[in-house]
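Dear colleagues,

As part of the handover before I leave the project, I'm documenting each prediction I ran so the next person doesn't have to rerun anything. This entry is a single chain, and its sequence is reproduced below.
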Amino acid sequence: MTGVALVTGGNRGIGLAIALRLRETGYSVVVGSRSGTAPEGLSAVELDVSDPASILAAFERIEAEFGPIEVVVANAGITRDTLLMRMSDDDIDAVLNTNLGGSIRLARRALRSMLKAKHGRIIFISSVVGLMGSAGQVNYAAAKAGLVGAARSLAREVGSRGITVNVIAPGFVDTDMTAEVGEERKAEILGAVPLGRYAQPAEIAGVVEFLAGEAAGYITGAVIPVDGGLGMGH
């Protein structure tokens, strides 16, 4: 497998696992991060998905140095968790602009080369929270749910040009972020997951590898849960 893949938020956690997996698969992987750096010897570009100018500059640099982008994984995101009554306007705007608006703008810019090539893969990383809700995460859940509508609408727009658009909805994943969860809350979470454990970042990366490959060429507009059964029925 050859081609250029861009993974936003690919400098740690799920994004890093995705970037490493795609590199192993044979892609020329570029990580987009606010710092413009990435570990594990990965190529990186400075990219803030909440800033439209940053998206345009990053694509221009990647295309000049590596060539047209074939796979885009919109993984970058932030959280500003609190009950809605306490949530500031900035908490709402920042999360929606980064997690939803940033992913939409990223896909829009990626389409330039994909439409010319009549081939491409766009993969949005959503969350089980966007499907079943979570108290204290109204902004985050709204953004992650919005990715589903965006992906399915875009899939209808560009399907005839050989471009697929899909969504992965992870559940609780074993990352630095979840490692900070208290033992009581961790037991509560695991009690709700039929498989009784967190996902490993590599398990999310494996689904990205599949969706990016030829075997998934007839899959578009899909929402694939990787949540241990937590969101069953949602």
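The longest strand covers residues 163-170. Residues 47 and 63 are 14 Å apart (CA to CA).

All the best with the project,
I.
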